[in-house]
Amino acid sequence: NKFTEKGKFMLKIHCILVLAIGFATLAFGAEYDRITQWMDQLINSNPAYVQGMDIGKNDQGITIRGIRIANPNFVEGEKINQLLVGVHHGNERNSSDLCLKTAEKIIAKMKDPASAEYKLLSRSVFYVIPVLNIGGFNASSRYERNASNSSIDPNRDYPDPCVGNKYYQLASVRNLAYFIDRENIIGAVTVHGYIGTFTYPWGINTSNTHTADHDLYTSMAKASVAFNGYRYGTHTDVIYAASGSFEDWAYHKFGIWTMLLELKSSSGDLSKDVDCLIKYFTLVPTARSADHAHPAGNCRSTLIESNGRP
To answer: What percentage of the chain reaches a pLDDT higher than 70?
Structure first.
């Protein structure tokens, strides 16, 4: 009798846990559905300006969706391609909302020739990927699972010029890298959370944290954070050094003008951060950096690494 009662009790506990996990999975899954529905709304409401796009599938076979924004009424000069990416880390969920709120404001300004930013935004094509790490986003986890079911930090999964690290272990990261190469991206911002910074290379293990473009980077960052009051500087100087991150890889490999926006809060008004990003996108040069490679001789022999870096 005692055993039977205990068995019944354990069965009830098991059922409760199964139901709880099921509800949690549905809830997190619904969160990504919210993002895809938001993208669909932008596409359907602005068919001349916004098209759906994707960069391929992740390791679970889910398509990583995004939107492409361009002003069909602006034909002056050659367009430059810019990229905005959220949710490298699945627990930095507000980064997805910032991406789409920024997209909304870019569209509105492209539709308004009287806008002060009309020409500077209309010169660009914007690719917005609000959620790169879908699995982590649905589980509210920093990490993402690869094809072998290993847990990988997506923002440590890029080739690093100073460390012989493993890279492209995630299909999401590989596909983003292929996309960047294919589309000739000139400017890029990745969004993380939550310490309130706007930073730029170098963030690798280097003895000299300043790139050849340091002064220009500093000027663009300073003008951008006038809207949200964030700290700015190199990743290493303002946050921490880290190996295998997107921002340093994209600049070192291609000369892409990359920035990392660390939201200050996981909730609240994002309008100042939207304005910070829009200002930056108006300042990005029309061509990639010509002097972007990291000198091998500047790599540190002793690595300084911190999990505090986004």
So the answer is: 87
- DSSP, collapsed to helix, strand or coil, labels residue 36 as helix
* pLDDT level of residue 21 (50, 70, 90 thresholds): very low
Q: Are strands 231-234 and 185-193 parallel, antiparallel or unpaired?
A: unpaired
User: Coil, helix or strand for 257?
Assistant: strand
Q: Which residues of 255-274 are buried (b: 16+ CB within 10 A; e: fewer)?
A: bbbbbbbbbbeeeeebeebb
Q: Taking a C-beta distance cutoff of 8 angstroms, is the pair 202, 235 a contact?
A: yes
CA distance 267 to 294: 36
Task: Specify the DSSP element, H or E, that contains 186.
Answer: strand 185-193
Sign of torsion, CA 254 310 90 50?
negative
Nearest CA-CA partner of 117 in 183, 84, 71, 77: 71
pTM for this predicted structure: 0.89
Residues 146 and 245: their CA atoms lie apart, in Å, by 17
The pLDDT confidence band at residue 27, using thresholds 50, 70 and 90, is: very low
Question: Cα(155)–Cα(157) distance, rounded to whole angstroms?
Answer: 6
Please, what sign has the CA dihedral across residues 110, 115, 121, 127?
A: negative
